[in-house]
Amino acid sequence: MLGMGASCSSAVPPERAAPSSGMYKLEIELKRGHNLAVRDRGGTSDPYVKFKLGGKEVFRSKTIHKNLNPVWEEKTTLTLDSLSEPLYAKVFDYDFGLQDDFMGSAFLYLESLEQQRTIPVTLVLKDPQSPDEDLGSLELAVTLTPKDSPIEERRDSTNQQSIRLSELHRKSQLWRGIVSIALIEGRNLIPMDDNGLSDPYVKFRLGPQKYKSKTVPKTLSPQWREQFDLHLYEETGGVLEITVWDRDTGRRDDFIGRCQLDLSTLSKEQTHHLELPLEESRGFVVLLVTLTASAAVSIADLSVTPLDDPQERREILKRYGVLKSLSNLKDVGIVQVKVMRAEGLMAADVNGKSDPFCVLELNNDRLQTHTVYKNLNPEWNKVFTFNVKDIHSVLEVTVFDEDRDRSADFLGKAVIPLLNIRNGEQKGYVLKNKELTGPTKGAIYLEIDVIYNTVKAALRTVVPAEQKYMEEEPKVSKQLLQQNFNRVKRCIMVLISYGTYINSCFEWESAQRSIISFVLFVVVVWNFELYMLPLGLLLLLVWNYFFSSSRDMTDMSMEAMFEWEDEDEDKEDKDSEHKGFMNKLYAIQDVFISVQSALDDVASYGERMKNTVNWTVPFLSWLAITALCFATFLLYLIPLRYLVLAWGVNKFTKKLRNPYAIDNNELLDFLSRVPSDVQVMQYRELRVDPGQSPSKRRRTNLS
């Protein structure tokens, strides 16, 4: 699309070429502007240009005063790890002491650029509020160069993401092995910040799969200690691309270095300790990598259903029986999903139809159906089999509309916790919106079976949960901040109500209650032993099991926290001529995000403790009862000093016994599996009445 003298505006993206994985160098020369808009009273302007990628500013030009045909002749070079984000160019008129005036903007779609040669590009400036207004143009020279490596050149190229979703073969979705990666640490990285340090994080890419580590602030020798799994789709292994970045607030992150690992050189079924030097930079990244054979995943027609074959079902039940409880602890169970059909879907195309296909996700495992074209009531009749690594995982079933030349349109989503599944029951699930806060149009019919080993499931509960490969960066949201504040307030109010009740016993507001409380206090204190602490929590769980009405649902008052509407996206930060002011603004934004996240964490853990006691997830409450019985037994039989001594010896010798151990807290890992009140509402099933029309069903569920 873009060639010599090609123009590109912000209105409609050009047809995109297939993006390839890997690193890219983008060289941009900002030459000049033509016939720019008048913004000053003297009939002229003081223009300057900003370039943004992924919402972050990556370049700002100098200001050319009193000129509508400015000549900049400035160059900048960017390092990219993806071409999916367009380059966003914005032109402003500089006003001293005032907010700068907007003069127009345009997008440059990088996927459409011809690579390895300099291309003249003209960007036609537009104002989204006044699309017909002539705002002039920018003249650029752009060079996009892939940073190919010798390893990658020797290998066959991976499947392009632009292949039509309906043409994906069944086998191309099924992985042949698992790459378990423990990111341990970095050593002697180069400083990228003015303070002589960096805020490093790591990105991993294996074919289409991506993973991003946490950021370790202000260090050149970061300790990440993270573990995650990627899928192997090639028999020979594939090339694992590793890039290290320095996180910067308010501007594009700095590239520190990269390295690659050819997985075909590693032997399988054993752990490899690797210290990989960074190319084009100094420093090392330390990893533990293990290649294992694939767990059983499959896609089949309804006529070939694994669990419907009696002999195969017996073998699966035997594999996850009690006698196999201590073998291969990561293989907890198996889930089989029959995707039957959907009905009453949203029309996403101009012809009043859709081209729906269905994507199933279990943690980072992802499979999909074929596309049924021009149909609002598609039938897929496919059977999908996943291995279960965590019984507390949530199966996500999302319906999309396939589009030939752009990304698929979202039609609806259903989420089903594995522990909520009733085996062999064909059930209709109302589709929800992206935020899972309310229904959208349509329903999907599934039949799900889950077989798992209870002992393995319990043991996996107290290890860190698997994280999504690439999670979205948190954003400031006034609505979310207020919601999290209200959640924390509710938790505090519960504690205050308990305190008020206890104080009423001291105030003798009820003589009977105060007498009973006083006698109970004297008896407990006089006979107190340490084992009574877990015993008291055990009695609370047992009491709620028999007498609490909130076992199967969370407090109805929780619904008052939510308004079923989409979150407003954050508005773009106002531009200012002073970088110092912008840095302060971004710092304040970071503080708001930290406060917002902290409120969410505090509220979530408070709600999870309540939901454990309330039997919201019976499996976890029974597990808590088992642990409390064991703790009571230990404290009753063994003196406390011996238990504390054993705990201390374990803590002090843990690093000596395993220097690369990934730290975890068993209690927090357990609580992370208990849903918060927000998640309980998201996982709540909406009713499907076969006799209702889709529009009437949606109104019923909204009410």
UniProtKB/TrEMBL annotation:
Has UniProt tagged this entry with the keyword Metal-binding? yes
Topology of the protein relative to the lipid bilayer: Multi-pass membrane protein
Q: Name one cellular component (GO) term.
A: synaptic vesicle membrane
Q: What keywords does the record list, in alphabetical order?
A: Calcium, Membrane, Metal-binding, Repeat, Transmembrane, Transmembrane helix
> In this entry, which stretches build a coiled coil?
none
Task: Name the domain of life this protein comes from.
Answer: Eukaryota
GO terms (molecular function) for this protein are:
calcium ion binding
Any one biological process term the GO annotation gives: regulation of neurotransmitter secretion
Residues passing through the membrane, by range = 518-546, 619-647
Occurrences of domain C2 (ranges)? 7-123, 159-276, 318-431
Name the family: Belongs to the MCTP family.
| The protein's name | C2 domain-containing protein
- The source organism is Amphiprion ocellaris (Clown anemonefish)
